[in-house]
Every structure is written in structure tokens, then in C-alpha cells.
């Protein structure tokens, strides 16, 4: 599938528009149109329904070590600035950038690559941000810089391989990606990806706050509130869907890397001893979710990170990836990350930001020897009173304090009754999921028109649960009472689903418009309806048309959509 065809369909049919398009658009921001908003809501609704609302907490699900509870939250976008200091985003969530004084362009330091080349007695480092066609680009730039023609390419003496700009010290002899002169790139500068904002009217540095770059932290800081206000016990997953903001340096590839996007995150809190098993469970469960909704082919993969990529406190991280058509052959883009985060986050919010490089983890200290970023000081540990009640008699004490006293020399004196839960974090992007479902669904095939002649058609084979419009209702012609019957069906279906009524134009053209929008079923009222009270239901994918009794249409669509 060519990406430009999907992009054009998305605009033409109202899935996606560039934000503020009439003013020339704003890079990295996207608006969902009438069909897009339904698709994205369906993605989020499917996730919430499958993960949270319809979760069966009474059964042990296949692959799970035990039964577990799921619940939800909806937190604010602006949170206390200390949250981001303790989470690590304030210190770590940045990229290094280089600016070009000549072209006024900005590049991510690690995304520019280049190669040393010599000609006419001069040696320079030519550079480009294009990684796929780097050598082609570098040759073009070098020929231009040395004022040589294509046929003189042999005069270019290349030295060494194509390397990242990060390996070059001093940029005096570097030709920036869009520069004509040497030495126009600035030294790399840090650039925090969090959007800064001001809370209140005074607007001083003390009032600075950030738009959240992830929804996860709202869950961590509310962990105790959820436990205290509900009767939930661990293992417990807390889910949240919401907007996140990252001032991405290079927003690109349609909605794939946006500056404003939506995440669907679960923080799953569990007992440390079983956290490895829970990690396996969530990895497989989340992969299955995408497959069940139609990403069933080779383009979806689960990639487990190498041990070398993991922080020492994590027992695993896996990415669910999709081979988006805008990526080079063989490359995949991340849809979701599933991370075993140990007790890093809860401890950081309790004790102060932990130092990732310490083992066992210790609070990161500032130059004054005090915690660099102070935690809340609140107790975020969990007490398993069921287990304590069960065991205390056998332990010969009624007092948990006495139990702790007897284990003072242990690193985890409260275990296995009181502990800081481990966290498994399945973190997905709603926009990336919607984009992957669109890419997978796009197809061109042939379907017969009303005269039976095969015509090329564009079709979105979206899973019925995700399709923006579940059914379209047509009277075959605009007379003989057919519109009235069709409108009654339309109204009955509309109480449950987003459906569409259309009585204009040839029926074949109406079918094709719905195929392009991904509508799985078209219901047509025809001459026979008036005699035997049946209608046809056309299936978008098989093109089969079944007759169904008028009274059964709603149930039939419900049955098919699921
Ligand atoms: N709490 C963990 C976390 O935020 P992440 O890998 O940075 O992890 C999780 O983000 C998911 O959010 C990604 O897998 C992706 O689907 C989505 N995401 C992240 N940055 C994005 C961006 N700039 N545009 C669209 N989606 C993004």
C-alpha cells in the first residue's frame, strides 16, 4: 500500500485533517474529522471495554498467574511540577539539538549523519538527516559543495563510513544538511520535550508547570487514593486514556509522531515475586488484542528488548510493533511498549527520584548530599491484610510491628505482607493504533457495479468494532414507499450505532462510498421488501448479499458487529 493513497483518502473522506489547516497547518498536530473521530473513539472504547469494563475479575484468565482486578482513572493534564522531577522526565526527557545559523533549521543531533570527503585539496564532513538514502544525498551535496558535475563523482575521495554527527568533535569543517557554507552548525543544545505552561496569573518561574508527556504518572500518584477509596486488592490494574504532549523535534509520518496525542496506559500493581509472570501475561494479552482487532498478518510483531537494553531493575520490556508503509522495508514502528518497571516509580514518588544506575536502587543525591528531587514522603507500600490474617496465628504473633522487629536485619522486613508493589506497564498510543488499523485495512480490489461489470474499488476492511459507520441504509429508489421503510430501519439502528442513511444516486455508487469509509454492512430496501418484508444485507468484504426479515435487522447487525 502506498502511504500517499491512504493520506489522501483520510483527507477526502474526513478521517484526518492537519490542525489549523486554513492557516497553513501546525506541524505535529492533527484533527480527526467526522469519520476519524468515530474510528479513534472505537479504538479507545474497544481498549477500555476489553481491558477494564468487561474484565472478568472472578476468573483466572489464560496465561495469568491468578485472577486480578481492573479499574480506571481520569487525571489532569497539568500536574504538580514535582511529579515530573521524581518521574525523571524533568532531567531525562530531552533531546540534543543542533541549529544551523545559515538555513535557520534545527536538527536532532543523533539523527544527522555524514561522511568525510576530500576534493580540490579540501576535506569536509558533509551531512544529511536522511538515513535511508544517505550516500546518495551525501554525494549530491559534496558535488555541489566542490562545484563538480555528476560525471566527476570519481574526484570525490571518501574517507571512512557514514557516521552519526554525534561522533564528530567541533563543527568547523562540517557542512550542515541545508547549508552552503562550512561551520554553520551550533554546538548541540539540550531541548526538553515537555511543553511548559504557567499556572495562575503571576507567571513567575515558581508558577511553571508542564503538560503531561504521559498519562502513567497520574496513576502512580493516585495509587493510594484508589486503594483507599475502593475495596480493590492487589493484583490490580489501573487504566487511563488521555492526551499527552511532547514537543517532538521531528514530528513526522502522519500521526505517528505527533506533538499532541492520546495514550491508553495500564499500570498493573502486583506482588514482586510474581511480577515476572505478570509481565509475560500482559505482553501476550496485549499482542492478542491487536490481532483480534485485525492486525493479524506479518506486519505485526512483538519484539523483546535485549538484556543490554534493559535497566537492571526491569525484568523485561517488549514492544508491539507494526511495519507501517511509510517505513523502509523491514523496519517496524512502535505501537505499544510493555515494561516491567519493578518498584522504581512508586519508590521514586515515596522516597525521592531514584538513581537508575544504582543497584540496589538508591535515591539520587544532589551536590549537597540531599535527595536531588524530594519524593512525597507518603507511604505507597501495600499491606496484604488477607495474607497477614491467614498467617499470623502460625507466625505466633498478633502484632505486625512485632513481626517487623524480628526481621529488622532483612532488606524487606515487611515481606511478604507489606511491600512496594512491582509494576507492569502496557503503554499504548491511540493515534498509532488507529493509524495501524487504517494502514492494515486499506485495500484496492474489484467489485461488480450495478450492471455486473467489474470496477476497481478502494475499501477499508476495518474490523466491525472499529468501523466508524456500522451500517448504511439505502432505499433502492426514492419512491414506492421504500424511503419510509429504510428510514424506520435507520432510526432503529441509530439508537445503538453510528449508521448512515443515503437515498441519492445509483446504489452501486452508494455501496462504493461506504466501502471507502469502511462500513461493514449496507442494508437495502428494494421491490421485494414491499412484498415479503425482507431487505438485503451486503457484506463489505465478501460482497455477499443475504436477505433478512425486517424485524430481525437490528438483531442481525448486532450479531455481526459483536
Ligand atoms: N508511560 C510510558 C510511555 O509513555 P512511550 O513509549 O514513551 O512510553 C507509549 O509511549 C506509547 O505512546 C508509544 O508506544 C506510542 O504508541 C505512543 N506515543 C509516544 N510518543 C508519541 C508521539 N509523539 N506521537 C504519537 N504517539 C506517541
Main pleated sheet? 7 strands, mixed
Q: How many angstroms separate the termini?
A: 28 Å
Question: Helix amount, in percent?
Answer: 25-40%
Runs in which pLDDT lies below 50 for 5 or more consecutive residues are none
Instruction: Give a count of the beta strands, DSSP E runs of length 2 or more.
Output: 29
Bound compounds, each kind once, are: glycyl-adenosine-5'-phosphate
Radius of gyration, taken over Cα atoms and rounded to an integer in Å: 29 Å
Biggest sheet strand order reads 3-13-14-22-17-16-15
Number of helices: 16
Taken from the alpha-carbon principal axes, the silhouette is: flat
Quickly give the structural class: alpha+beta
Q: Kindly state the mean pLDDT as a whole number?
A: 94
Strand content: 25-35%
Describe it for me?
This protein has a 7-stranded mixed β-sheet with strand order 3-13-14-22-17-16-15. Strands 26-25-27-28-29 form a 5-stranded mixed β-sheet, with helices on both faces. A 4-stranded mixed β-sheet has the order 8-6-7-9. The chain is built from 16 helices and 29 strands. With 562 residues, it is α+β, with helices and mostly antiparallel strands. It is flat and about 90 Å long. It starts with a helix and ends with a helix. Glycyl-adenosine-5'-phosphate (GAP) binds at residues 214, 216, 246, 248, 257-258, 261, 263, 265, 334-337, 425, 427-429, 431-432.
Amino acid at each position: 500500500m502506498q502511504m500517499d493513497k491512504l493520506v489522501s483518502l483520510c483527507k477526502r473522506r474526513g478521517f484526518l485533517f492537519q490542525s489549523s489547516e486554513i492557516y497553513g497547518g501546525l506541524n505535529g498536530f492533527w484533527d480527526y474529522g467526522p469519520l476519524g473521530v468515530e474510528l479513534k473513539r472505537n479504538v479507545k472504547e474497544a481498549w477500555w471495554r476489553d481491558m477494564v469494563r468487561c474484565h472478568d475479575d472472578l476468573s483466572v484468565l489464560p496465561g495469568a498467574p491468578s485472577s486480578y482486578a481492573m479499574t480506571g482513572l481520569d487525571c489532569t493534564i497539568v500536574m504538580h511540577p514535582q511529579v515530573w522531577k521524581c518521574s525523571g522526565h524533568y532531567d531525562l526527557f530531552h533531546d540534543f539539538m543542533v541549529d544551523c545559523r545559515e538555513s535557520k533549521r534545527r536538527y536532532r543531533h543523533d539523527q544527522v549523519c555524514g561522511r568525510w570527503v576530500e576534493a580540490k585539496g579540501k576535506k569536509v564532513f558533509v551531512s544529511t538527516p536522511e538515513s535511508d538514502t544517505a550516500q546518495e544525498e551525501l554525494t549530491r551535496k559534496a558535488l555541489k559543495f566542490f562545484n563538480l558535475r555528476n560525471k566527476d563523482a570519481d574526484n570525490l575521495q571518501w574517507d571512512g563510513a557514514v557516521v552519526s554527527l554525534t561522533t564528530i568533535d567541533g563543527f568547523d569543517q562540517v557542512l550542515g544538511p541545508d547549508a552552503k557554507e562550512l561551520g554553520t552548525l551550533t554546538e548541540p543544545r539540550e531541548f526538553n520535550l515537555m511543553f511548559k505552561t504557567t499556572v495562575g496569573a503571576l507567571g513567575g518561574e515558581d508558577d511553571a508547570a508542564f503538560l503531561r508527556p504521559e498519562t502513567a504518572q497520574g496513576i502512580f500518584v493516585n495509587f493510594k487514593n484508589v486503594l483507599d477509596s475502593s475495596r480493590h486488592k492487589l493484583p490490580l490494574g489501573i487504566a487511563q486514556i488521555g492526551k499527552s504532549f511532547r514537543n517532538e523535534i521531528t514530528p513526522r509520518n502522519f500521526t505517528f509522531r505527533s506533538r499532541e496525542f492520546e495514550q491508553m496506559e495500564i499500570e498493573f500493581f502486583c506482588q514482586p515475586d510474581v511480577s515476572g509472570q505478570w509481565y509475560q501475561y500482559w505482553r501476550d494479552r496485549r499482542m492478542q488484542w491487536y490481532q483480534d482487532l485485525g492486525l493479524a498478518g506479518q506486519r505485526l510483531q512483538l519484539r523483546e528488548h535485549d538484556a543490554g537494553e534493559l535497566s537492571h531493575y526491569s525484568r523485561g520490556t517488549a514492544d508491539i510493533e507494526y511495519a507501517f508503509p511509510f517505513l523502509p522495508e523491514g523496519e517496524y514502528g512502535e505501537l505499544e511498549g510493555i515494561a516491567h518497571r519493578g518498584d522504581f516509580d512508586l519508590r521514586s514518588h515515596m522516597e525521592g527520584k531514584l538513581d537508575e544506575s544504582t543497584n540496589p536502587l538508591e535515591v539520587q543525591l544532589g551536590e549537597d548530599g540531599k535527595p536531588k528531587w524530594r519524593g512525597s514522603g507518603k507511604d505507597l507500600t501495600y499491606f496484604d491484610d488477607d495474607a497477614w490474617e491467614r498467617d499470623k496465628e502460625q507466625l505466633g504473633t498478633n502484632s505486625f510491628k512485632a513481626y517487623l522487629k524480628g526481621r529488622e536485619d532483612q532488606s524487606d522486613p515487611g515481606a511478604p505482607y507489606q511491600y512496594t508493589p512491582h509494576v507492569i506497564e502496557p503503554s499504548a498510543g491511540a493515534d498509532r493504533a488507529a493509524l495501524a488499523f487504517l494502514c492494515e485495512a486499506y485495500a484496492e480490489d474489484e467489485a461488480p457495479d450495478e450492471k455486473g461489470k467489474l470496477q476497481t474499488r478502494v475499501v477499508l476492511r476495518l474490523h466491525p468494532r472499529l468501523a466508524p459507520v456500522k451500517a448504511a441504509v439505502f432505499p433502492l429508489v426514492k419512491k414506492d414507499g421504500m424511503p419510509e421503510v429504510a428510514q424506520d430501519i435507520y432510526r432503529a439502528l441509530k439508537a445503538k450505532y453510528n449508521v448512515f442513511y443515503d437515498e441519492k444516486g445509483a446504489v452501486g455508487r452508494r455501496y462504493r462510498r461506504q466501502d471507502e469509509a469502511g462500513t461493514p454492512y449496507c442494508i437495502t430496501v428494494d421491490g421485494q421488501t414491499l412484498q415479503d418484508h425482507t431487505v438485503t444485507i451486503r457484506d463489505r468484504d465478501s460482497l455477499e448479499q443475504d436477505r433478512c426479515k425486517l424485524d430481525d435487522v437490528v438483531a442481525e447487525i448486532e450479531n455481526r458487529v459483536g
